[in-house]
Amino acid sequence: MLGRLIFIFVAVPLLELAVLLRIGQWIGLLPTVALVVTTGVAGAALARRQGVRAFLAVQRELASGRLPGRSLLDGLAILVGGALLLTPGVLTDVIGFGLLVPVSRRRLQRLALRGLERRIREGSVEFQVYGAGGEPTTRRAEVHTRDPGSGQAR
Description:
Layout: H1 2-27, H2 29-63, H3 69-86, H4 90-100, H5 102-122, E1 126-130, E2 136-140
Antiparallel strand pairs: 1-2
């Protein structure tokens, strides 16, 4: 876990800085700054629009008595994608836009769910549940055979 945190907070920003410097050498300072600002503004607008759609989908599913699994996953992906687009950098922008576009978002969600299911089967995922007394109880996660968005068996 510590290695992942170091990668996220040290290696990724350094890599982003190196890419931005390379782009700046190639196209110049002002176009590079304009690129960063444009992707931030466009990403915020797209995240807002997609976020409203996901919110409305959650409301529709709850109103019809269904669990909004896929819509909640969409909302989470849109939130993360929007945050990545507001972070200066080209690599985070590519990932952020990928999380905002429905087709690539579905693909990334499937990959994430497969990885989570694999870790659950290996027994490396545990949850702590807090009861009425405030004492944590550790429980192993279980793999269910239903798609959280559709309720259909997989």
